[in-house]
Amino acid sequence: MYERNHVDEQPIAEDGHPLRPDRRNFLAALAATSAGLLVGGVPGLAEAASNRSSLQRQVVEMVTSMRRQGLLQPNEKTSWSVYDFTARKKVVSINEGVPRQAASMIKPLVAQAYFFQMDGNRSQVRYTDEVRTTMERMLQRSSNPDTNKIMDLVSEHQSRRGPPDVELVLKQRAPAIFQETRIVERIPTTGQTYRNQASAHDYSRFLISVWEGRMPNSKELLRMMALPGGDRLSKGVAGLPPAAKVYNKTGSTAMLCGDMGVIEIPDQRGRNHAYTVVGIIERPSRAENYGAWIRSRGDIIRRVSNLIYQDMKNNYRLV
After folding, report:
1. Residue 229: is its pLDDT beyond 50?
2. Dist. CA 117–CA 136, nearest whole Å
3. Where is the region Disordered (predicted)?
């Protein structure tokens, strides 16, 4: 069973205190009913429970500044998460446990569900050339029809209930990781998928487990997530060096702009350092001008990613 991270990843609220289950539910309800607050939460409460609390403060201050400038609207909520593999610490944790629309960020989780089935029944669930090509199109080109094909394959080897079978496999095999994940719909032909959900914390736990090789077929999943394609974590981020390698998946609809992935960069001695970045911006209704909205919100994620890189560079003398 892939049920636990051996790293302490206790969720942190925006006031920097670990969330007890009752307090987590209370804050999740508060976040769900509060609009126009700092990064979807409470203004000015920003300390992470680590020695790197300054990075969380910087992220909060940057997002607050962008709200004041009108770059983020009052009804837009955000979640941010950063885990530093070198320090083995969560260094940014903002609204992590709040379920948000998943959009195409659900696709690596769909692939993982298939790999779970392979791990449990290799005689029937095989990684054929056709399946590999389908997964590559799903993750590299964000192909919706290919995502539906993998969902159907997972369901075929489960109870034939469609997308809910994908969620069932994930939660059966790794319940401690996919706590706020909800998969209920195929990706429509129009690409307008709004009902599937996951939290930044789910993505964080997932990325950590994959990076550390504690998921079936972790290396293969990372290979596909590193294939050339779009990302908001490095492309267009002026500060990141060409040596940076990114393993990611974006999510884009008229109601959500997000990216989640691992960034790996060498230091000046050639030693690699890696960290996760999850950034999600969600609005309650469709943007009137999708193109302009998704570009501007993507730039916000890029600015935050650059801020995170600068902190990592200062700490580890990255190139």
Report:
1. yes
2. 18
3. 1-20
Whether residue 99 contacts residue 27, with contact meaning beta carbons closer than 8 Å, is answered with no
How far is the C-alpha of 304 from the C-alpha of 171, rounded, in Å?
A: 31
Q: How far apart are CA 135 and CA 114, in angstroms?
A: 10
Residue 3 belongs to some domain of the structure = no
> Quick one: pLDDT at residue 2?
45
Q: Given 3-state DSSP classes, what are the helix, strand and coil percentages for the chain, each rounded to the nearest 5?
A: 40, 15, 40
Instruction: Name the β-bridge partners of 248.
Output: 261
Task: Judge contact between 222 and 211, C-beta under 8 A.
Answer: yes
Q: Which helix (H) or strand (E) holds 47?
A: none
Residues 171-186 have a mean pLDDT of 97
Both tokens of 239, joined, read 């500060």
pLDDT at 35 over 90: no
pTM for the whole thing?
A: 0.84
Greatest Cα pair distance in the chain: 57
Query: Residue 52's pLDDT is what?
Result: 54
Tell me the pairing of strands 89-94 and 256-266: unpaired
Quote the number of domains for the chain: 1
Residue 209: domain span: 21-102+196-316
Say which CATH number the domain at 61 has.
Answer: 3.40.710.10
For 246, the enclosing helix (H) or strand (E) is: strand 245-253
Question: Is position 205 within any domain?
Answer: yes
Quick one: how far is CA 40 from the chain centroid? 17
Is residue 189 in a domain?
no
Does residue 173 lie within any of the structural domains?
no
Give pLDDT tens digits for 236-249. 998 899 999 999 99
Give the Cβ contact number of residue 319 at 10 Å: 15
